[in-house]
Protein: Ribosomal RNA small subunit methyltransferase D
Amino acid sequence: MKNEYQNEVRIIGGKFKGKKLTVNEAQGLRPTPARVRETVFSWLKDSLNNASVLDLFAGSGALGIEAYSRGAKKVELVDLNKDNIKSINECIKNFNDNNIRAINADAIEYLKKCNTHFDVVFIDPPYALNIYESVLTLLNERNLIDENSLLYVEMRNGTNQSVVGYEIIKSENAGNSKYTLWKKSSLLF
Structure:
C-alpha cells in the first residue's frame, strides 16, 4: 500500500534544522507532519534540554531526531521495520554520537526488557495495532517514566483513548490524526 507522503521529511528546528530524513513506504507509516511537529515541540520545549527520549514506532525517526536536534541528551528510536531502522542509522551515523541509537525491535518486547528512565516518550504506532493501552501500562509498570515524564501519543482522530494512571494534558486534531500530550495522573486510583 503506497503512503500519501513524499519520500522525505525535514527536521524543522534545532541544530539539525533542514536535515532530510528518508521515509520508506511501509504499511501504517504516516510521518508526523511538520505543522503537527511544530505544535508538539512547542509543548515540549522546556522538557527536552538534556532529556532522555524514547521514540517508539519510530518510522522515519522524525520525532526522535527532532528531539535530539532540539537538545535531548539521549534518544532511543525503536521500530520493528528493518528498512526504517536502516534509514535511521544512515541518518544518525553522521551525528557521530553514541547518545542516539536506532533499535530494531518490537515495541512491547523492547519495553519488557528496558531498564532506562525516560523524560519524554513518543508513541505513534500504526493505528491498526490499537496498542496504546499496552504500551502505556508497560511504561508505568516497569517504572520507565515518572510523574515529570511527558508522553506524546498520536492516534486516529475521533479516538477517545484513556488509560488508568494517566491524564491527557493537551490535545489537538489535524486531518485524520489526534495528537495528545499525556503524563502520569496526579489522582490516586
